[in-house]
Structures are given as structure tokens and as C-alpha cells.
Amino acid sequence: MNLDTPVTDLDWIPAARRRALERIGISTLGALLTHYPRRYEDRTRFERFPSSEGTAPVCLCGVVRKVQVRRVRGGQKMLDAVLEEEGAHALSPRLLLRWFNAHWVERMLAEGLRIVVYGRLKCSGTNLVLAHPEFEVLDEDAGPGVHHGRITPVHPATEGLTPKMVRSLVWDGLQSLTPEAVPTRLPDALAEGPRCEALRQIHFPESWEALAKARRHLVLEEFLGLQLRVVSRRENGRQEAGGRHCGPGELMERLHGSLPFALTGAQLRAIGEIRADMAAPHPMNRLLHGDVGSGKTLVALSAMLLAVEAGFSAALMAPTQILAEQHYLQFRRLLEPLGVGVALRTGTRREEAGPLPLFGGAAAMEGPQIYVGTHALLYEPAGLGRLGLAVIDEQHKFGVLQRARLREQGSEAGPDVLVMTATPIPRTLTMTVYGDLEVSVLDELPANRGRVVTGVRPAAKLPEAVVFLREQLGQGRQVYIVYPLVEESEKLEAKAAVGEFERWKKLLDPWKCELLHGRVVPEEKEAVMARFRAGQTQVLVATTVIEVGIDVPNATVMLVENAERFGLAQLHQLRGRIGRGSHKGYCVLLCSEKADGPALEKLQVLAQTQNGFEIAEADLRLRGPGDLLGTAQSGAAPLKLGCILGDAELMGLARREAQRILSSDPGLDRPENRGLRGFLEGSGEAVLAGVS
Ligand code: ADP
Ligand code: MG
To answer: Residue 532: pLDDT above 70?
Structure first.
């Protein structure tokens, strides 16, 4: 019996439960034992029943008296059960347990049963009520030491598999293991005790201290696995042979000279770093990280010119058609005077236009070119010339796999890769998610940037907002109206957009409004954008399609409806569309009446700061890293136990350890390091580390 033993070989698990386990992705004993508890209840000794409500959840044990089911308004079925403290007397407090439409509870509860409940107490009239509490029936004979009389784990459960069942399975699983079957993988310096013991204690801790120690062990192991992979990926990248793709820089100088402004110090520094990478004989793998409006595009274009000058082509990939076309227009304007050809390539356009139309003399030009397109560029069969540099704009819509695919393309040794993102990533995350990339940061905004004033207002203030918008339009400014995307259905979304649009047209008459959402066909989208860019329309009513990258300096006002439905980071991205020219920007965040206190409070962060990093930290704290990690596609499985934010210190420790180990033993050949190989290979054992 070891951690790789399939669940199907564990004959002490009934077949039905095995199937339920498989439904939640547990197919080996190791997976079962890393199905960590979501919380713990102290059932060593139960508290007396409280006599008032409180904010923290309580865990109590009592005896069920009276169970009553009633029909209430709206046809709902309400189940009330009285819970009495054991050995209670007439005056001791009783609790009311209450459920709506919970037939399964009806089947399970009966008078006289001893149960453990967990939930938040609320006053309702003269009663103390626990609404929809979690509960578990205690059987006196089977149980002490596993289900009660101890700090008891509560595992994530699923249909047909209650926390109690999971607890039993995990208990039996642990009994079946010998310490030899669970070799310790953490280096001695970090491990305080064997891994087998950590696994036992994380599920069935003998004390809170033992639990903390076990958790530390397992989190460190998880992080070490992650960091070993990240660090080795980075080292391998550094040692790989790659072409040099860097010209002398004359073209780039000419580009810079033609601009009506000087580059910021941060831009120049980033270009310098990129240039050094491109000139070196190994592939560049660099992340250009800069807040919205920091001028990443010009840095990219400079790098592209370096490649062109060295006789290679360069490609820029944008996440959307609109952005691709915007970059294309801008590049044409800037590059035609330099005699560099630019081609636009997007999936849709080509389909409709037949053979690709080449622009700006590109057709006449042999050799190096600049290509701008969407992801479709990735699937271009050798159509990008001798690709020396690939730039990926707005990385958070672009995964590791796609990056890898790019690297396989192009010139013999693979192109240099530059990834650009505006997603403000806190340091702990950068280390994890982008740990295999070198990072350049644009930490300086161009000097002429107008400040953006942000206000959070209830929807009732709409009329005042309209007056303000009209005032700004009267001064020649342009306006974005944004409302939340309805994710479930593009159709619905489009419909809502159309409704909104009609309303805004009336509100802002006679100014010209146009509509932009995901369902608008690409040609039409581009036409709408072109008219807005040219100032022929003054108002753009849009979904979040305008979230990334759109650049219209005269559009300085943004109104966001139902702002509470957006995440902070997303609102920050949206807001980045304004305040790009020299005029002051205004962002109005309207909240629906339904929005509650916390939602409004959350939005205040945006009114208080324009610093993307502060906003990202706040966002991370409010929502957890799930989103960021998910969309950033680190390539690693989600962490099972560790918390990137809360365990930042352990992550740093794991990082240093990974670097120490790999720098002295890159192949993990030493006997004491062999056990770590599983982390790199992603073998079954690595599942334990969360990096399968
Ligand atoms: P982002 O980093 O959000 O992609 P962009 O590259 O779109 O930002 O740049 C935003 C705007 O700032 C563009 O209109 C660009 O021309 C302008 N810009 C870029 N660099 C500078 C600079 N050094 N000084 C002034 N304006 C700049
Ligand atoms: Mg951009």
C-alpha cells in the first residue's frame, strides 16, 4: 500500500463511495490523503450554549427535541428543530435549528438524537436560531477518537459523500500506511518531522500546535515542488541555445526621434534590458510589466525594430481583434516613414478577404516585416518569415502552452519572447506565476498623464451624472459608458447592451452614441472604433470589450454602471482607458441600489488610489488569488493547501531552498535530492505536492 495505490484497489471502500470519490477527482490513496480538511471543529469538549448571538460561528453539541415541519409563505417547507443542551434543566438556553426545503434533513433528524451543529447564531424574536447549520449525528459506540472527542476535521464533501464518510475513509487510509510508504521529501533543514506524521496530523491533529506544524510541513513541500519547477524551467531557458536577434539600433533611434515626446526613464531601461537579452545567444523570456498607460507598446515596437534590423521578422499578438487593429494602425503610422512594412493578420479578416491583403508596401518588401494579429498568428504555417521576436500583449489572456508553442516556431533556434501585461501582480505572485520569466517593470507613467478623479455614487444619482457627462461632452471630450458583462449568455448580454444603448442615446441626445459588445461582428467593431477614435462619435456604450489596451486620448470620462459587479482589478483596467491625454479624467462608478455596504466599501479603494499594485493587493485580499492564478495560467496545478498571500513567508523560504538545491545539484543527482525528482517529472508522487 503506497500513495500511488489506486482507490479501486482499496477494498475497504464500498463501491458506491469509490465512485463518489472519483467524481471529485480522487483516484489514488495519495489523492485521498491530500484531500485536506476545509476546517476543524474542536470536539474535545463542547461549549455551553450561548445566550446571545455572535459574529463567529459556533460548534455545539446537544440533543434534538421536537422536530416540526410547516408550510410557509411562498409554498416553502420550513423545518424547525429544538436543540437542547445535554443534561439541561428547564431554564437552560435552547436553540432553534431551521431549514427551508431540506427534505434530506427531515429524513435524518429525529427526537432524542445527539448531534453536533456548526453555524452562526442569530436572534429571531425570543429565539436563538441557527439557520441551515452543518450538522452531524454522533453515534456513541462508533466514533470517539475519530468523529468526536478530538479536534475533528471537516473535509470537503460531495453528493453521496458526507464529511463524516470522508473522515472515516481518510482515517482508514492513514491506518493502512506505513511510514516507509511515505518517504519524507523536504530537506532536513525544513522538515520538522517525517511527512507521514504531517499527513496524520493535518487530518487528525492531536493539538492545534501539531496541526500548525503539520500544515507548515505540507505547505512547504507544496511550495518547494512549485519552486523547483519554476526555478529549473528558468535555468533551462537560460542555458538553451538561441539566436541573436538584435540589430545596431539605428531604426529604433529613428523611431524615437520621430515621436512628439521623450521616452520615460522606465521605458528606456526596459528597452535596454530587452536589448541585452536579444543580443545574447539564448532565447529571451521576458515579462514587461507596467500599469495601464505606462507605454508598453512603444517598448515592444522598439524591440521589434531591433529584430527587423537584424534581418528577422517580428510579430505582435493581441488578445482581441480590436486591439490588433489598433496596434496595426498605430504601427503603420509610425513605421511607414521608416520604410518598414507592417502586415495585419487576424483569423476573421483573412477568412473573409480571401488571400491576405498586404498593406503599406509590405507586399513589395522582401525579408523582414512586422506582423500584427490575434492569436490566429500562432497557427500561421511558417507565414511569419524568419521570426526573431514574438511579443504577446496583455499576457493574462495568454497561457504558458501558447508561449511554448510560439517558441517552437520561427527561426531555427526559436524566437525571443516578450510578454506584456498590465495585470498588477503582487510580488508573491510574480515569484510564482511568472517565476520562469525575467521581469522588466515600467514603474513610471509618462509625464503628461492627466489625473483621474474617481467617484462612487448610488444609482439614484444618475441624473446628476448625466448633467456632468453633458458638460464634459460640451467641452469636446468623449465618453465611455460601461456596464457589466453577463457571462452566462452572450445573447442576453447583447440584448441588455441594446436596451442600455437606447436609453443612453436619449439621455445624451444630441451627442452621437455608438454601441460595442462581444456580439458585434469584427468589421463593424473596427468601424465603430474608428469613428470613435476620429471623434465622429462622442459616446461609446460598451461592455468590457474595451477593458484592455484601447487608446483614445480624448476620451476622458467613463461611467460604469453596476460597478459593484466588477472586480477591483478589472475596474482599474477599465479606468486605464481614460486619463491618457493631457485632460483631467473622470470616472464615475454607479452602484445599483441592491449593492450592500461591503461592496461600496470595496469600491472606495478605487476612489482613494490609482496605484495598480495597491489595488491588486486589495483585490487579492478580497477575492483570493484564484482569479489571477487561474487566468495567468501558471502551468502549475492549483495549490491544495498553501495560500499565496497568507503563506508568503513560506513561499520565500521554498524559493531560496529551490535555488540552493538546484544551483549545487542541477540534475538532482545527489542521494539526498533524488526524492525531489518527482517534483520535476510530475509523477504520481508529485500530486502530493500540488504540481502534478
Ligand atoms: P499601455 O502600457 O497601457 O499599453 P500604451 O502603450 O497604449 O500603454 O501607451 C498609452 C499612451 O501613452 C499612448 O497613446 C502612447 O502613445 C503614449 N505614450 C507612450 N509613451 C509615452 C511617453 N514616454 N510620453 C508620452 N506619451 C507616451
Ligand atoms: Mg497596451
So the answer is: yes
The DSSP symbol for 423 reads: S
Q: Do residues 456 and 517 share a domain?
A: yes
Cell numbers placing 479:
465618453
Please check whether residue 156 lies inside any domain of the structure. no
Same domain? 308 vs 425? yes
What pTM was estimated for this model as a whole?
A: 0.63
| SS3 of residue 311 by DSSP | coil
Ligand 1 atom with minimal separation from the 292 CA: 3
Q: Cα(479)–Cα(110) distance, rounded to whole angstroms?
A: 63
Chain segment 421-433, per-residue pLDDT in tens? 876 666 666 666 5
- Domain carrying residue 562: 452-623
Strand partners, 542: 482, 516
CATH number for 84? 2.40.50.140
Q: Judge if 398 and 468 occupy the same domain.
A: no
- Give residue-wise pLDDT tens across range 390-416: 898 865 545 555 555 666 654 456 788
* Number of the ligand 1 atom closest to the C-alpha atom of 393: 4
Q: CA-CA distance, 503 to 462, in Å (whole number)? A: 12
Give the number of domains in the chain.
3
* 552 pocket-lining for ligand 1 (C-beta < 6 Å): no
φ and ψ of 622, to 5 deg: -75, -40
Residue with the larger pLDDT of the pair 232 and 115: 115
Pocket test for ligand 1, best of 298, 445, 448 (most atoms within 8 A of CB): 298
CA of 616 to the centre of ligand 1 (A): 21
List, as ranges, residues with CB under 5 A of the ion ligand 2: 549
CA–CA separation, 226 and 45 (whole Å): 39
